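hey so i finaly got around to running the thing on Excinuclease ATPase subunit from Litchfieldella anticariensis. pasting the sequence first so u can double check i didnt mess up the copy paste, my clipboard has been acting weird all day
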Amino acid sequence: MIRGLLSFGMLLGALLLTTASYARDTTHMLSIEEAMNTPAARERLDPNIRFFFADTPHGEVVAEHGNFVTNKKTNAFNKTDEEACRWVMLSALISLQDRVKAEGGNAVINIESFYKRHPMTSRTEYECHAGALMAGVALRGDVVTLH
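ok and heres what it spat out for the 3d tokens, dont ask me to read them lol
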């Protein structure tokens, strides 16, 4: 009986250690410019839609279409955190781009990272969270029509 309990305890401990290693949630602050200049981004982002992060100057707003949030996840298995983060950042940007097209705008301004509803504003970096299995990026911005 005692030997059985010890074996069960050792198994439970091993499972807890394994589960903890999969629960990794590493925060990365990465370059917006690098993410937007990958070959995949240049191929998939519409050059007629502009993205302005934080308080980056932009043209005159002639129509406001609303504030929108995108929260994207991607498979991080067998990728570096940076690779997974760049891929999920592109997914988040494409989601905003699709929203711009649906709303009839031509830009997203005031873009900020919005992971777990916590704003992080930067002109140069975005926030990505990576674990053993998934990576995620959340963005929030104002869809507008610029003159």
